[in-house]
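Sample pair:
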Amino acid sequence: MNVTIDANFGAKIQSVSSTVLDFSDTAARKLKSLHAEEGNPNLMLRVSVYGGGCSGFQYTFSLDEEAKAGDRRVEKDGVTLLIDQMSYQYLAGSEVDYREGLEGAMFVVNNPNATSTCGCGSSFSI
């Protein structure tokens, strides 16, 4: 919880998210469908940030059956998103979503910290 003081010196309590990353309903549903397709309910979606890409950093997604030491976990509707320690700092306030469109079907990161992105949305800079 976060406490702020208003102009009349009264305390107000505001809810603060406990995770650095949100996992959209659409992304959770897609991961559930991958569980069914693969016949493996232990699959977790891993999002990572690496140096590279046309804008400086790029997002990668993979499916893992086991969390690694130091991974952060975001759980929603019975599925799990994993974030490694290094990537965690670049994803503060972001949302992992799933989109289907002209570019294809893919997991994406909506990152409010990105100052620029490439045309395909897979790389960004801060």
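Confidence is low (pLDDT under 50) at residues 1-6, 8-18.
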